[in-house]
Amino acid sequence: MKVVSGLFVFSAIAFCSCKIPDYIKVCKFNDPQLGDCISSSVNMIRGKLKDGIKELNVPPLEPLFIDRLSFGNKDYASHLATNLTNIKITGASEFNIIKVVPTLTKKGHTFRIEAIIPKLHIEGDYEINTKILSLELKGNGPFTADLNQYHFECMLKGKKVEKEGANHLEFAKMQCNVVIDKSSIYLHNLFGGNPILEKATNDAISENSESLYQDIRPGISDAIRQRFTDIANSVTLAFTYEELFPET
Fold first, then answer.
1. Which of 44, 51, 158, 197 supports an S-S bond with 191, CB 3.0-4.6 Å?
2. Which InterPro entries does the record match to this protein (predicted)?
């Protein structure tokens, strides 16, 4: 999901010596409320992130696509065993920044980010092979899922690197801890689309949705973290380090 991409964009341009667009609030290094200033700046540009910022080569925040997630194990009595493909995630543009704690030093720059997304909606295709309440489930079709109150805390670390004779800020893969309030998933076209069997089976799946989410969370988290890091670097490597973080 690209929920903190706004911070990445801001980290790349808020201290830039070039002309700053009107929708960017510039924050100074010596601002005693630097974290609050950054949060405010991200909120100012959040509305633009949904459709992307062409002048900064920032792609649209929505939808976020993930090609494939696989999970499950041989213990089909307690775990779903399935592949999810063609995954599309929406809702990330509704993110709210709770707190940003920046640490800026000569050796590197670290941003600790806490944020929440009210609801993520997920669509895609599934292939399933599992057993629920003595029912053998094998098949495929579309699925929908919702993750409510997606709360995350992330750390984004950057360091100065030299590329083609110029200094740039490059980020390592961000690290995140994620907690959600409730999750749900619905598998369509089970039992040939039989509405009674389909609903009964999905009700059983919903009762174990927390266990299901624990299975798929590593894959989702890894895909999102990698995408966010790629977005951050695509922007910051377009500027020199001195442009992004002038000493005066």
1. 197
2. Haemolymph_juvenile_hormone-bd, To_sf
